[in-house]
Amino acid sequence: MSSSKNPKAIPSQKSNSDRHKSHCKICSHPQREEIERAYIDWVSPSMIADEFKLQHRASIYRHAHALNLVSRRDRNLQAFLRRYLERADEAPVTAGAIMQAVTLLARMNKRGELVDRDDQVSAQDLFDQMNPDEREAYGKDGTLPSWFTQLSGAEGPQGSESTENE
């Protein structure tokens, strides 16, 4: 039986996307990018709906699921942890909860992935692997060899500051 005659057949992904775009208030919203960025940065959907004059937070969830923003939000756990820590003085939060958030944030690499202790690399071991030219370049201007940054996720003194957009 062909799928066009079967009423229970799953519609194509393209038609689902087209249907979403034709009905979605966020897709046609002039501040769509800001709404999506706020969602990915773990701003509460209720707060997003209020700020951007959306009828209901459910529209944000529908939009996020349709465009797979949920996985991008999940990968951006650092933004959530930073927001949590910034607000620690505004809410009754236990010291243990704050320490857990700090510990999680410290265990994340620059891509927002959790790094288990077994996956962590000893900086001293990596420095020991540098040849004399690489050590001299690091001593002069903080330049790390490309193999070092690929293994450790470190960027040296210039790149050690974290930004919100990473």
What does this structure look like?
By secondary structure, this protein is mainly alpha-helical. The chain folds into three domains: 14-75; 77-113, no CATH class; 120-155, no CATH class. 54% of the residues lie in helices and 0% in strands. It is built from ten helices and no strands. It has helices at residues 13-23, 32-40, 45-51, 57-66, 69-75, 77-86, 95-106, 123-129, 132-141, 146-152. Helix 6 (77-86) runs antiparallel to helix 7. It is elongated.
Topology at a glance:
Elements: H1 13-23, H2 32-40, H3 45-51, H4 57-66, H5 69-75, H6 77-86, H7 95-106, H8 123-129, H9 132-141, H10 146-152
Helix pairs in contact: 3-4, 6-7
Q: Structural class given helices, strands, pairing?
A: mainly alpha
Whole-number count of domains: 3
Spans where pLDDT lies below 50 across 5 or more residues? 156-166
Q: What string gives the helices and strands in order?
A: HHHHHHHHHH
Number of strands: 0
Terminal residue distance: 49 Å
The helix fraction, in percent, is 40-55%
- Assembly context of the chains: single chain
